[in-house]
Amino acid sequence: MNDNLNRVRKAMDAQGVSAMLVSDIGNLQWLTGFTGSSGLGVVTDSQTVFLTDSRYTLQAQQEVVGFEVITFGSPKTLNMVLAEELSGRQINRIGFEPSCSYTTYEGWRKEAPGVDFEPKPDLLPPLRMIKTSEEIAKIRAACNLADACFDHVLRMIQPGVSEYDIALDIEFFIRRQGAALAFDVIAVSGPNSAKPHGKPSEKKLESGDFLTLDFGARLDGYNSDITRTVVVGQASDRHKMIYNRVLESQMAAIDALKPGANGKEVDLLVRSILDKDNLSQYFGHGLGHGLGRAVHDYGGLSQTKDQPIEPGQVWTVEPGVYIPGFGGVRIEDDIVVTESGCEILTTSPKHLLELGA
Ligand code: ZN
Ligand code: ZN
């Protein structure tokens, strides 16, 4: 029983696609259950083929659901076997995911010159965006781990501790729980915190620094992504003004994310709240991104993108204000859209924490 396969077939039917080649490894894993890192899937209304090389033969036989598994070894190549299967099954026209590299595309065309490859960018992504309850449970577990990690790292935060030390403590905690980092930990303080994706350094925390921590755990193939900003020592009025405005905008966005809303409007709402203190000029990125198998999963919340909000979507909500020379604040939670609103999956405290005074 493979629900995702049924959903893909329905989408193929709706878009008039008779055969579809799945090459994006995240999509292939989502579609087949395979957890390895190389393979191709072919879906028609009556056939399903999963191709991978001999490194993964046993694994594919154990993991892949709803597909005929075909494996091969040297001197055959993945593209040769793909071409054989397409011609053996009289498939001369096939949709593909244009997110593949140009070299990959050229490789298919060279091995299978008689086949028409047609880009179908909008077939799988909309399906991936609506998470099943099983997927949401996995994202929730990854979020719980990120929350536990934030709680754990708080004890470290005081003047004299370096950004590296903080980042490594986060990494150690996550990996010690059997998870992987969803991405390289961001731990930036003082003026460094004005770089939204800055790298941790030897810089030591000082009283009066904003410290921004952005990290996530990948657990069982699914990610979390959380950001908290704290003040080292005592917060000034300026710290409080910026922090509280970002927090107000973030909570308003979460309130507004419900079925029927549009990501564009929610992003603009956040900017209008930041502008009560003229701060939207310091908010250069979008409000959030889809989250799931990929940290930056399909979809985005931004002022330039028409994005209907629907139940089952999982989003990050992460407004930020970055003032050059002073520092930055970002507050990021992960949410799942429900029938009536949304549920917040990351629950670490959000009031302004003043630490190590
Ligand atoms: Zn993040
Ligand atoms: Zn994020």
Layout of secondary structure:
Layout: H1 3-15, E1 19-22, H2 25-32, E2 40-44, E3 48-53, H3 57-63, E4 68-72, H4 78-88, E5 93-96, H5 102-111, E6 116-119, H6 125-129, H7 133-153, H8 163-176, E7 180-181, E8 186-189, E9 210-215, E10 217-219, E11 222-223, E12 226-232, H9 237-256, H10 263-274, E13 288-290, E14 297-301, E15 314-317, E16 320-323, E17 327-330, E18 333-337, E19 342-344, E20 354-355
Parallel strand pairs: 1-5, 3-4, 5-6, 12-20
Antiparallel strand pairs: 1-2, 2-3, 7-10, 8-9, 9-12, 10-11, 13-14, 15-18, 16-17, 18-19
Helix pairs in contact: 7-8, 9-10
The structure holds zinc ion (2 copies).
One zinc ion binds at residues 225, 289, 316, 318, 332.
What does this molecule look like?
With 357 residues, this protein is an alpha+beta fold. It folds into 2 domains: 3-128, 3-Layer(aba) Sandwich (Creatine Amidinohydrolase, Chain A, domain 1), CATH 3.40.350; 130-355, Creatine Amidinohydrolase (Alpha-Beta Complex). The protein contains 10 helices and 20 strands. It has helices at 3-15, 25-32, 57-63, 78-88, 102-111, 125-129, 133-153, 163-176, 237-256, 263-274, and strands spanning 19-22, 40-44, 48-53, 68-72, 93-96, 116-119, 180-181, 186-189, 210-215, 217-219, 222-223, 226-232, 288-290, 297-301, 314-317, 320-323, 327-330, 333-337, 342-344, 354-355. The chain has a 6-stranded mixed β-sheet with strand order 4-3-2-1-5-6, with helices on both faces. It has a 4-stranded mixed β-sheet with strand order 8-9-12-20, with helices on one face. A 3-stranded antiparallel β-sheet has the order 7-10-11, with helices on one face. Strand 16 (320-323) and strand 17 (327-330) form a beta hairpin. The model has no long low-confidence stretch (mean pLDDT 97). The structure holds zinc ion (2 copies). One zinc ion (ZN) binds at residues 225, 289, 316, 318, 332.
